[in-house]
Amino acid sequence: MFHIRTLTVASVLAVLAAASPAALEDRTLDPVCVQISNAISSASDVYYPGQWLYDKGIAHWASSSTQLAKCVVEPGTAADVGIILNIVGSTQTPFAVKGGGHASNPGFSSTTGVHISMFRFSEVTYDAASQTAVIGAGLVWDDVYTALHHMAFRWLVVVLLELAWLGFSWLTNQYGLTIDTVKAFELVKPDGTVVTVTENTNSDLFWGLKGIVTKFTLKTFPQAQVWGGLITITASFIPQVAAATADFSANVQDPKAGIITTYNFLLGEPGISQLLFYDGPNPPAGIFDAFLAIPYLTKDVSTRSLSSLVQSSPANATYGQRGIFNTVSVLEYTPNMLDVILNETVFWGTQLSLKTGSFISYDVEPFLPTLYTHNTSPSAYPPNRSLGLLPFNIYYAWASSLFDDDFHDAAKQSASQILGAALAEGQSGIANGPIYPNYAIFDTPLSDMYGNNVAQLHSLKLPSTLTMLWPLLVASSSN
After folding, report:
1. Model pTM score
2. CA 146, 149, 151: angle at the middle one, nearest 5?
3. For 296-322, what is each residue's pLDDT tens digit?
4. Which of 34, 188, 230, 343 is spaced 20 to 30 A from 48 at the CA atom?
């Protein structure tokens, strides 16, 4: 076994923070934060408003997910996470846990209380004997892919690392969801106990995880070069894109092939960001020909490493703006459904541009109907693996907090419109089907995501010796 760590800047930043004349002694520090600072080991730190590492700690990809906390705690060991949980539990202090910082739902990984940042959990360890890798909970997938690329191995997971780890990816058709590749978690339970969770030990927690994860152990698979990248296409050629997307969704059965067709509204008009992927150096003839024949504005498609392909997508183009996700589940991306999605893009793009809207986006993500069949072990999500429900993401970005409610309401109305269109064309299986939790808007009922598994999920909190902590933990979903 050997170890690779992604570039960790915490030590450099700590020097800068220490050199800053923050004059913390001149202000009243939160007593719970001080108690934590006195209790944790030297592997961890506490930062306060006015320190640069405090600002880094609370920052999110979507600025609307950032709140001003009493302090930021950066634990460096699982044992220190346990100490922190015991203190916030015994003092009934609100807290949040942030991993990669990509949560779009306000308050899901932020707080006005104690903000726990998992930044220091940045390990990437590969074990050749078991063909598994252990990754820390403070990483983003760009870092993980880069580290594993040097060993020619890959993760089977979503692009950004979040503790909401369910995960679709370019490899889902072949290997399933992120959850289907997990072998173990290092978990800090609400009572502060550090445990290893596997299918055979703490199996109830493995089924429906509850607590703070510090490490993930996942299966890896040999990875050669892939083919693909991003094409941007202007409004006049959207009908050709829609036809190619509907045909791909209905007819391509090669599990190594994938697309994401994103309908955008930007600078006053609609357009397409088209991602193509093939798990091999060159795709067979015919799979992507229709897409490649469409005139384009920009094109970056080639044979490359998986890490290069992932990083070619402009995922951070709207970093720092306010944002929200919402979703519906569908069974098919038919020509009619794609027309509805285009209409929603133009309608809400036009309306929301008047309210500081900068980017209106609808992600069409086709997969094979067998995508949930790669794991026979039960899991909280999806509650039903017999339906080949497809993910679909609505994403809005804007500048002013004055219009937060307008964008949240629009995302809900648009999701309802798209769901109604799918039902109207006969996709009756989606009526009570689960929706993807990573895309679900903040007030989505748990039953809409986890179905009949909600009661069992609630029961997992009962054995805890710190049941008083549970309402705080549930309110602090980790991303």
Report:
1. 0.88
2. 130
3. 999 999 999 888 888 888 878 899 999
4. 188
